[in-house]
From TrEMBL:
One of its GO terms (molecular function) is hydrolase activity, hydrolyzing O-glycosyl compounds. GO terms for biological process: carbohydrate metabolic process. Keywords: Glycosidase, Hydrolase. The gene is bbmA. Gene3D superfamilies: Glycosidases, Immunoglobulins, Oligo-1,6-glucosidase, Domain 2. It is an enzyme of class 3 (hydrolase). Residues 142-507 form the Glycosyl hydrolase family 13 catalytic domain. This is Neopullulanase. The keyword Hydrolase applies. It comes from Streptococcus ferus. PANTHER family: ALPHA-AMYLASE FAMILY MEMBER, MALTODEXTRIN GLUCOSIDASE.
Amino acid sequence: MNSAACYHRPESEMAYLYDDGHLHIRFQSAKDDLQKVEVIWGDPYRLLSERWYLNAQPMAQTASSLDKDFYQIAIQPPLKRLAYLFKLTDTQGQVAYYTEHGIFAEGDLSLQIENLYFRLPFLHDRDAFKAPQWVKETVWYQIFPERFANGNPANDPEGTLTWDSQRKPGYKDFFGGDLQGIMDKLDYLSDLGVNGLYLCPIFKASSNHKYDTIDYFDIDPAFGDKKLLKQLITACHQRGIKVMLDAVFNHIGEESPQWQDVLEKGEESRYKDWFHIEQFPPQVTRSKRGHVRATYHMFAQSGNLPKLNTANPEVKAYLLEVAKYWIEVFDIDAWRLDVANEIDHAFWKDFRKVCDAAKKDFYIVGEIWHSAQKWLEGDECHAVMNYAYTDSILSHYLYHQIGLNRMLSQLAEHQQLYREQANQVMFNLPASHDTPRLLHLCGNNKELLKFVLTFIFLQQGSPAVYYGDEVGLTGGADPDCRRCMAWLPENQDLELLAFYKALIAFRKSYADVISFGKRSFELVDEEKGLLSFVIQHGDERLSCIFNEGKTHDIAAEHAIMRQNYINGKLEKHGFLIYQN
């Protein structure tokens, strides 16, 4: 037995409340090292009187990576308190016990010793990770407002260019997209089938992207006004569409009155402690190699985006009031948190309390591109923009950096980082305003795009479509990925649009299966590029076959005879999904 590879951590993503008093317990071991993992558990105060130490309950192996196996069990302690340890049986039949004090061979310990057991003294329902149910049934549509639709030319900024979906935009170009444009296209969005809108920042700012906030309490005049936003949100809700706004709390724009006051008054400014200023006067220099240096902290290398000091009580109170204001007055359903990993955890914990108090079932998504365990413990974010997860998919199918088995291994390990509730509401996006578009990444191969997108839509979490992807909009890295939406029929790929509609309808129809179902792999053939897996939830079962190679497989041929729900070509970059 590889005892060094055995691992469990209580009061974490490996032991947590799930729902209705059910507790999920997980265990990790070396791959193919154990033939059985069992849990011995019971009331810590009745260990001897009930002799529950004599009963071992088997755990299910739920996933595997290249070098690890993962086990899980759901139990319901009757008195909301628990003591437990693990009984391990290796492939040679040898038994050992994994306890709070280490691993013991069978015969080297007495199971009647109380302090050997992991303890969960009392399971408080308020400590459970609670995620909004509606997110599991949502397909998001991300809109970069300045580039979606120009509904009111009267509010166009000076120098606005003619709307041209084929023109590659520059960093400072304006095309006149606004809230009225979104309002005008709600029929289109409803017909597409999406039921969640994520809007990049709409608050007053000087740039086209609006991540340089001037006033958090006002709508940018080039986008419209508060009355129009309220009308838009109400119209969305009437159509069953949720609305998520973008909160940029890590930094503020250089034209904000707070920063301008600092620039004017220096150390005498009442706002000097709103920022991280190391030396006065605050200034920026750029080296010959382009490296930016400043006497204050900023976002990335952007001297025009001074970083806010969220530990300052005034800053904190101000931003929390912003969070509450747009929920209570405008009834938004979610916040997306820009660069959430650059702000202190104490701030986000209080932010979560404010949002929960303002609206029931409110959804919070952090922009975190790496593993995010600390933000997903149940008291900060509900989910993150799941770049790390979808990047594993792209790294195999598009970048060809890793093999099929390694991709599946990375996906399994990534999901083990988080509680099941978090996995079920992750914000899964193949591309966004910060990345090249999916069609660009696919080398303009639309069959490959369909292949990858379908695979992503079958993952746990809430999938997202970046505006225009559905009609064949392409573009490289920022700013090219922020082209104007193509509205003229001759500039739209209507066949691709029909595919997106079918895929979105499919994902919504099978939301419960995909969110809650157990996944099992029937075929993983790296040489042929064949992957076959099943998602089972209750009596419903989805069979999924993906062929990235050039050959057919018997399983795929057999599946053709079944009732098809999504049926791509079974040749290269082909897939087949059916219910049986």
